[in-house]
Amino acid sequence: MTERLATQFAFLAEVEKLKSVTRATPIHDASRPENSAEHSWTLALYALVLADQAAPGVDVLRAVRMLLIHDIVEIDVGDVPIHLANGTAHGSAEIQAAELAAAKRIFGILPKDMADEFQALWEEFEANETPTAIYAKSLDRTQPVLLNEQAGGGSWVDYDVQWEELETRVGTKIARGLPGVWDWVQARIRPWFDARGR
């Protein structure tokens, strides 16, 4: 038991580093960037609050678990903004390989049974094929959009994001798992883009 606790606390100490990973998206008042731990915690709440929007077959508590660990790899890899360099880096084979190595390293700190469980959850989220992963991934795309809107444009300004780009890279992923949410979000944010000729 002592050895198991030691590895569990070693993992918990390691993931404290997620609080130091700065994201491209600012917090609601644009006073500073959000960190990846804040993002993960907020998404867990999104999963609970928006559970009534989930498609049949979604396990909301499993989605919460996915969202709490989905960005732990950023401890090693950092945040890769979706709009960076026209999105060429985000999702590239190089980034995917780095994130997989990070997942194996960080989850590998845990006892083997937990390491295997967390790795499987992370891989399910990344594959984005099960109803639960699709729900979780849709939420992961929703939250930064709403933060940017609250912050007066946030990273949309920083990366000169155009409406078509946002709709393609983000909107389609939200709509895949949460079509009603995307309809609501789109109606809310489209005027910001239209007012700026984007």
Automatic annotation (TrEMBL):
Chain segments annotated as coiled-coil in the UniProt record: none
PANTHER family: 5'-DEOXYNUCLEOTIDASE HDDC2
One GO cellular component, as annotated: cytoplasm
Keywords: Hydrolase, Metal-binding
Highest taxon in the source lineage: Bacteria
Boundaries of every HD domain copy: 15-182
Protein name stated in the entry: Putative hydrolase of HD superfamily
GO MF terms held by the record: 5'-deoxynucleotidase activity; metal ion binding
